Sequence to fold (301 residues):
Amino acid sequence: MITILSGGTGTPKLIQGITKTADPEDLNIIVNTVENTYISGNYIAPDIDTVMYTLAGIINENTWYGVDKDTFITHETLKEMGYNEILRIGDKDRAIKIQKTMLMEKYPLSKVVDIQRKKLCVKSKIIPMSDEQSNIRIITDEGEMSFHEFLVGKKAQPEVEDIIYADVKPSDDVISTIEDSDMVIIGPSNPITSIGPIISMNGVKEALKNSYVVAVSPIIGGNPVSGPAAKFMNAMGYEVSCEGVATIYKEFMDKFIIDVEDTESEKKIEKLISKVVITNTNMKTINDKVRLARIILGEIL
Fold:
C-alpha cells in the first residue's frame, strides 16, 4: 500500500504518473484542506477536488483546477446580475460542489469525499487531512487573512510575515493509513501551506518516523515550480532551496529526490538525509511523470 501526501498542483501531476505505474486501488492520498471555504453558498475544497478530478481523468490541465472543457454559464450569469464571484467556478464543477455542500449536512467531509470519488469511479482512496475546519492564518504586511483570501483575493501579492496553523485533529484514517503503508510519498507540493498543515497535526510526524518516506522537492534551482512557496518559506525562516525543503522534512524522510539543476546541493543534503536521488523532476509530459514515479517506487535506480 502506498500513501501520498498532497496539495493541489505539483503532487496531482505526480499522481498521474504513479497511477500508470502502481495499481490505483493500492493508493491512498491524504489531501491538504487549508483552502476549504464557502463561496456563493457552496463548500469549496480545492485541493481535494483537484486530486479527485485528476484520478477521475477529468482535470483541467491548463489550470490544474476544475473540470476539463467545463462551461461557465452560471458564473457569467452571476456576473451579469451584479455578483462578482471571487473564484471562477465551472458548471460541472459547481454541481459537484453543490452535492458536496448538501452531503455535508449529514456526513463529515471524509465520508462525503468517499461518496463522491466512488461516483466518479475513482479507485484510489482520498482522505481529507481533517474533518475539522483547518484553515491557516497568513500574517502579512496588509494584516491577517485566510489562505484563500491571500491566494485568490489578493493574488498572493502581500508580503508574508508569519503563518499560523490551526489546531485540528486528523481525520479518522490518517494515522492508521500512514502506519499501514509500505511507502509514504510526499509530493512536490508547497512544503509550508500544502504539506506543512498535514504534518503539523498531532501524531502525523510520529507515524511518518515509523514509515518509509520518500519526498520530491518542489524547488528547482532555487525557485518554486508553482505558487508562492518562496514567500512562505522565507516567512518561516527556511532557505528557498531543495536544502530548505530537506530541513523541513529531515525528521522523518528516508529518500529525497531533487532536480538535476540542484546537483551541487547533494553533499549538503546528505548531511541531513542519507539517500539523495538526482533526476529531472520537472513534469512537463506524461513520460516525465511516469519516469519520476518509477524512480520514486524504486523501479529505476
Remarks:
- The chain has a mean pLDDT of 91.
